[in-house]
Amino acid sequence: MGNMDKAIEVLEMMMLTNENPFNNFVCSSVISGFVKVNKPDLAIGFFENAVKTYALHPNVVTYTALFGAYYRLGRLNELISGVEKDGVEFDVVFYTCWMYECFREGFMREGLVKYKELVERKIVMDTIGYNVLIDGFSKQGVVEKGVGLLRKMEKEGLRPNVVTYTAIIMGFCKKGKLVEGFELFKLVRDLGVEVDEIMYAALIDGFCRRGYLDYSFHLLADMEKRGICIGIVTYNTVINGLCKVGRTREADDVSKRILGDAVTYCTILQGYIREHNVMGMLEMRKRLEAESVRLDLVMCNNLIKALFMVGLYGDALAIYKRMPEMELTADSVTYFNLIEGFCKIGRLDEALEVFDELRKTSIFSVECYSCIIHGLCKMCMTEMATEVFIEFGKSAVSFDVGMLMILLKAIFHVKSAEGILDFTCKIESLKPEIFDISCNHVVPFLYRRGFPEHAYDVYSKLRSKGSLVTNWSHYCILRALNSESRILLSWPTVSTLVKIYGIDRPEVSRILVHLLCLENVSEALKFLRKMKGDITFPVSVLLELIKNGKALDAYNLVMESKNNLPIIDVVDYTIVVDGLCKDGYINKALDICSFVRKKGIKLNIITYNSVINGLCHQGCLVQAFRLFDSLENINMVPSLITYSTLISALSKEGCLHDARKLFERMVIKGSKPNTRVYNSLINGHCRFGQMQEVLNLILNLEDKGLNPDEFTVSAVINCCYHIGDMEKALKLFFEFKSKGVLPDFLGFVFLVRGLCSKGRMEESRSIIREMLQAPSVINLLKEVETKFKTESMEHLLSLLCDQGRIQEANTVINEVGSMFFPLEKFGESISKSFASQCSTLNDGTSLELETYNEVELDKVKHHGYLDKESQQKEFDSYCDLITLFCSRGELQKANNLAKLVLTAVDKALLCNQALILKKSGKLIRCGMRPGGWSRSPSSNSGELVEAVVPYMANLLLMAF
């Protein structure tokens, strides 16, 4: 602009001589000058003044000079009208300017239109015109068309110059065709064309962009050898290439050998910033100050960022404050660097001050809003962050998902799901599209974090406002409702999906089948049959049905869909088998196993464990052992869980001899018993008061490197309680305590109860205090408080102990126990506790041993008139159940079941079965011996005979 000022001064001096200096040559020169310094408005103003005041008659040269000014201001039509009005003919120079401006703005099609118009008017192209076209094509990445124009240019007798070749070489380098570019470069030299720095710089830039810096240095050396002056632009190209590949220190060394400019220093500073080189950034700052480099906006932005990185926050802010003095205006990058820098170091007040200054300008920066929201969220200032987001949403043209997710995570961290719901209420004032997009991200956000009800609330809000609900939101809501078993609430949503997409869409059909399977398997099967194999039910349905206690539905779904099953592996089938076994449907579980084998799927030991466990649940130990013995025939190795299940069942039924034999067999087979297996044996011996055996087992357990647990201790204390040896119980309690093991709640109950019965109140008080220190007991007491909404049980028991009211404390403890074990005689509860808690093993298979499943009675009632073959098949199972009830003294149950069996099976068949049972000793194996009744209320065989139906009693006596 300085040269233009001098030109205007000369023009004013000419005007003082009273001569008219405004001829076309002078005017076009001044106009061109204004256009070159990017002052098109001044150029047009000067021209209009010359025409109006000095009666200038513009020619094609003047109009050509004006072209750039009018084009850049979007007023080209005014210029064309003026040219046509004055009758001036367009020449090749005018068209060349026109094509140049089109290509400069990236409008290649418009530039080609003007070229065709020039040809149609039969205006002869010159070298400059072709150079403009070739340069335009090369810069747009269509260097092949540029080469074609070069050939045409040569055919027309025009000689390409260094500008022509340089433009094509630049095009090749831009497309990464360095070999072609270098070959053309050598050809140009061979043709004798004088190669200049710009052509070298084009090649050097191409090699640097691709990281071939060695070739760039060879070209620099060649330039020096040929005596070509290397300018700052070429050096900056090399320096930029070095910085981009992480060789900023080398670039810095190169810069020290030349007189650099702002671009040089800015490039090196950017390199050090990328490399996080603190020393390099500090050195560069010193060089800038020492060489008094005039800072431009880009340099200021980079310097601010660098100073934040080295910890000179005050200096960075000082540069920002001095920018007006340097005639620089901060842009979005400036504000972002400042806001980000202050947010990273936690100085949020300064960041907010800069952000407020940004808001006073006309600049709207998504990055700055995102940065300040992130900073506020890090400081848990979610209320202010929400206000900033709302302000952003009211002004934003596009939506920033990243900004929303940062805010949602922060709100959820501070206020959980309730805070997210409050946020959706606050953003209702935003543009509908912003609100819709935000809520459609909130729905899956809440669902993934385990708040399906809140996700449904947001979804309902979208539906009520008539907003667009995305497929992902629909899917999340359906998954949420299904997982929460809120099936009825999901039907309206499914109806909406069906209306939108139709039932033929596979995703909708699968969701519909999923819901039908969970609600009504019969309806689901009807729907699947109507779809004629186009879809099937999702495998996850089986797991959900089992989880919801609908094992029979899962069975029906599999067996009815035999020809249209999804891909189900042995794991999924095992889940179904396990569910059926736990619900008492042993025969159906076996049907599934048979079906799986026919499909060629090999069952694993986990499947067999489930069946064995189910048989043990039903008291069918004979069948369980038959299945166990058959494992060897199919080369299936029993697992620890297999042995543990059977040992636990035998111990529970009092078959301790058999349990010990199986234990020894397990050890011989190389399966190492764990504490739970030992607990099964210990619990069995404890039930019969065999204390010495219990102590031997505990010693054996410890010798094997295993540790007793709380169930071990509780079983031993229970045994001592029942044999009346509280001294032994107390001694063992303190021995285990010294090893860091305390009993569970029931162990404490029996210890306190036994001591109270002996009148040892002070010791009972001490034990109660010990009990209140056990974490498992505290958790159980808190569960009581929550369930029954009582005051602190721990405080109550402590108060009773302090007041010496031990008997009352004992009563409270017993009441708490009865809440959790209401179906057992409380004297036998330890067996129930032990079996339910210690037999849940590693594969997730529950080995909880129920005493009796009432479903079985119903099953017998319904099958009372089976044919003889079926009766014979099921006789063993019923006989085992009767044996089980007799061994426990549950004579009423045994009597009821015996009556049902006698009505269903004729006398001759029973006699045959009795003889078989007698010869095989099956009943003896299952525990039908006097020793097994010793702890029952009716402990002698006479009472047993009186209690059970005479005929069945005779059969049982015959077996002995």
UniProtKB/TrEMBL annotation:
<dbReference type="Pfam" id="PF01535">
    <property type="entry name" value="PPR"/>
</dbReference>
<dbReference type="Pfam" id="PF13041">
    <property type="entry name" value="PPR_2"/>
</dbReference>
<feature type="repeat" description="PPR">
    <location>
        <begin position="161"/>
        <end position="195"/>
    </location>
</feature>
<dbReference type="Pfam" id="PF13812">
    <property type="entry name" value="PPR_3"/>
</dbReference>
<dbReference type="GO" id="GO:0005739">
    <property type="term" value="C:mitochondrion"/>
</dbReference>
<protein>
    <submittedName>
        <fullName>Pentatricopeptide repeat-containing protein, mitochondrial</fullName>
    </submittedName>
</protein>
<feature type="repeat" description="PPR">
    <location>
        <begin position="639"/>
        <end position="673"/>
    </location>
</feature>
<feature type="repeat" description="PPR">
    <location>
        <begin position="569"/>
        <end position="603"/>
    </location>
</feature>
<dbReference type="GO" id="GO:0003729">
    <property type="term" value="F:mRNA binding"/>
</dbReference>
<feature type="repeat" description="PPR">
    <location>
        <begin position="126"/>
        <end position="160"/>
    </location>
</feature>
<feature type="repeat" description="PPR">
    <location>
        <begin position="196"/>
        <end position="230"/>
    </location>
</feature>
<feature type="repeat" description="PPR">
    <location>
        <begin position="231"/>
        <end position="265"/>
    </location>
</feature>
<dbReference type="InterPro" id="IPR002885">
    <property type="entry name" value="PPR_rpt"/>
</dbReference>
<feature type="repeat" description="PPR">
    <location>
        <begin position="674"/>
        <end position="708"/>
    </location>
</feature>
<feature type="repeat" description="PPR">
    <location>
        <begin position="604"/>
        <end position="638"/>
    </location>
</feature>
<keyword id="KW-0677">Repeat</keyword>
<dbReference type="InterPro" id="IPR011990">
    <property type="entry name" value="TPR-like_helical_dom_sf"/>
</dbReference>
<feature type="repeat" description="PPR">
    <location>
        <begin position="709"/>
        <end position="743"/>
    </location>
</feature>
<feature type="repeat" description="PPR">
    <location>
        <begin position="331"/>
        <end position="365"/>
    </location>
</feature>
<feature type="repeat" description="PPR">
    <location>
        <begin position="296"/>
        <end position="330"/>
    </location>
</feature>
